UniProtKB/TrEMBL annotation:
InterPro entries: Flavoprotein-like_sf (IPR029039), FMN_Rdtase-like_dom (IPR005025), ISF_SsuE-like (IPR051796). This is Putative flavoprotein. Signal peptide: none annotated. It holds the Pfam family FMN_red. The keyword ATP-binding does not apply. Keywords: Flavoprotein, FMN, Plasmid. GO terms for molecular function: oxidoreductase activity. It comes from the Bacteria. Residues 1-121 form the NADPH-dependent FMN reductase-like domain.
């Protein structure tokens, strides 16, 4: 399978990044082809809301660092959003990247989406907002022409505030196994 991991933290080696790394380790060991993009290193604009992409599916009028990501998105079977939880939601960086995937809304097919989140709070309940947003996000891809896109699951790095905290968490093993088992469920 082709896998695209979009990492949306400026802390490249922070908790989300570490979880994404474990997911990738598992996926590569299982023979999958993984591309990791660091949104924090990229220059790209906000979605303009011009809707031109609905007339020209898969293409955005803005030519910037998202152009290559869009191409990888189009080819990927599995997509991973790896974002820290900021104010109980995505980082603005992750959201900006997600909005720019709109050109695939009408044509995405058979893609499985995964969510990796790190957050400071230990209570699972407090991650609900992100999980609901994510589910809704995936559903959008089946509402306007896209077909058979689905939510493949999530990994929560709970109680992780300082970079590296997540190393003590069972989420590391869970992320590795999720990567290793890609395509089996
Ligand atoms: C601006 C900001 C907002 C945050 N908001 C929350 C929050 O609402 N809930 C929470 O549990 N943690 C919150 N955190 C803590 C981060 O989620 C936590 O440090 C996480 O490990 C960061 O992930 P990273 O290391 O991958 O960057 C916030 C951190 C920052 C900098």
């Amino acid at each position: 399978m082709k896998v695209l991991v979009m990492h949306g933290s400026k802390r490249k080696n922070g908790n989300t990044g570490l979880l994404a790394g474990e997911f990738i380790r598992g996926a590569e060991e299982a023979g999958h082809q993984v591309e990791r993009v660091e949104l924090g290193d990229m220059k790209f604009g906000d979605c303009l809301g011009c809707m031109a992409c609905w007339k020209n599916p898969g293409k955005c009028v803005q030519k910037d660092d998202m152009t290559a990501v869009l191409e990888k998105f189009g080819q990927a079977d599995a997509i991973v959003f790896a974002s820290p939880m900021y104010f109980f939601s995505w980082t603005s960086l992750m959201k900006r990247g997600i909005d720019r995937l709109y050109p695939y809304m009408t044509i995405a097919k058979d893609k499985t989406f995964y969510l990796i989140v790190a957050g400071g709070v230990p209570e699972e309940k407090l991650f609900d907002n992100m999980l609901q947003d994510f589910q809704k996000y995936v559903e959008c891809f089946n509402m306007h022409g896209g077909v058979n896109n689905r939510n493949g699951g999530h990994i929560l790095g709970k109680g992780t505030l300082a970079p590296g905290n997540v190393k003590e968490s069972s989420a590391m093993q869970e992320a590795y196994e999720m990567g290793k088992n890609l395509g089996k469920n």
